[in-house]
Amino acid sequence: MTLSAHRPRQESRGRPQQGMAPHGRRTRRPTLSQLRAFAAVADNLHFREAAAEIGMSQPALSGAVAALEESLGVKLLERTTRRVLLSPAGERLASRARTVLDAVEDLLEEAEAARAPFTGALRLGVIPTCAPYLLPTILRLVHDRYPALDLQVHEEQTASLLDGLVAGRLDLLLLAVPPGAPQTAGAGGVETVPLFDEDFVLVTPSGHELAGRGRLPRETLRGLELLLLDEGHCLRQQALDVCREAGRTEGVPATTSAAGLSTLVQLVAGGLGVTLLPRTSLHVETERNELLATACFADPAPSRRIGLAMRAGTARRDEFAVLAKDLREAMRPLPVRLVD
């Protein structure tokens, strides 16, 4: 919607009236479409990528930005044949544009939550070490209990998910949370709701000396060739923390790593080392591979906590609290320990 200033009946001899530029030129109010187009270009510094991001044709996007520059009376972008740069004014106004757009999204979210819970879109971010193993349970729950909810799933690493949550690109996250972390992080921060704890299991080649063993002390990890996920995966850091707690001080070799758990277990099956997997992943990743075996740790076994993360103060907090309760119940058959 475009908000237009009323045409003043007469000009004041003093400072400019509302809707008038300092030199007497009447300004027009920018539209949300123009602000959204400018914010996308400011984020991408590329017209084609910005247009694709917001689902607008490139000519329409270019026209919207030009119209915004005309409305504001300032040059926002510096265009060359090779790249797009923000002008000094563009640098200042880009953050203001994002603030306006975020405020509008908050207004729409508040209105949607007030109309009816568990309706409309829910943009759920999930870390890769949870997605293949927990999504079947989540999707079944949503299908059976919340048929009017438009669940949109985004699988990304933790840092990207948190950025998306804070920026408003995502609504709710399913990820690993530190067991001792506070549930809230203050206004404008992130609130976490724990769901369950799950143990780590040692995965070895089938002929390994530890294959099939139980009640392993953590200190066993000190002398093993441990394979890890790539940098950026929270499971990598969790494995390193477990090794550190076990007294492994010389570090873990990083000559071989994997982008996902499926690749990681194939490296183990090939005899390149051993790895730690969360228990919920075992059925999918190891059960049908005769070249793999598992070994369990003595209590208390190393573990991780999985929870939901939301923006502190979100209008959908009550809705997400109900969802967390329902998710715990739905996950009761899984090899996890529920956290109330």
TrEMBL record:
Q: Does the keyword Transcription apply?
A: yes
A single Gene Ontology molecular function, please? Answer: DNA-binding transcription factor activity
CDD domains registered for this protein in UniProt: PBP2_OxyR (cd08411)
Q: Name one GO cellular component term.
A: protein-DNA complex
> Which keywords fit this entry according to its UniProt record?
Activator, DNA-binding, Transcription, Transcription regulation
SUPFAM superfamilies, A to Z: Periplasmic binding protein-like II, Winged helix' DNA-binding domain
Q: Superkingdom of this entry's organism?
A: Bacteria
PANTHER family listed in its UniProt record:
HYDROGEN PEROXIDE-INDUCIBLE GENES ACTIVATOR, TRANSCRIPTIONAL DUAL REGULATOR HCAR-RELATED
What does the sequence similarity comment in the record state about its family? Belongs to the LysR transcriptional regulatory family.
Record's protein name: Probable hydrogen peroxide-inducible genes activator
**Gene source species:** Streptomyces pini
